[in-house]
Amino acid sequence: MIQRGGRGGRCVRCVGVPSPERRSCVRITPSTARTRESSVPWADSAVIAVRGLRKVYEVPEREGGVRAAAGSLFRRRTREVVAVSGIDFAIQPGEVVGFLGPNGAGKTTTLKMLSGLLYPTSGEASVLGFTPWRRDRAYLGRMTLIMGQRNQLTWDIPVIDSYELNRAIFRIPWPEYRRRRDELIDLLEIGELVRKPVRNLSLGERMKCEIAGSLLHQPTVLFLDEPTIGLDVGMQRRIRAFIADYNERYDATILLTSHYMADVEALCRRVIVIHHGSLLYDGDLPGLVRRFSPHKTITVEFEEGFSQAPGERLAALIAPAGEVVEQSAIGATLRVPKAETARVTGRLLAELPIADLTVEDPPIEEVIERVFSSGSSEAPGQDQVAAEITREAERR
Question: Residues 102, 118, 151, CA angle at the centre, nearest 5°?
Answer without folding.
Answer: 70
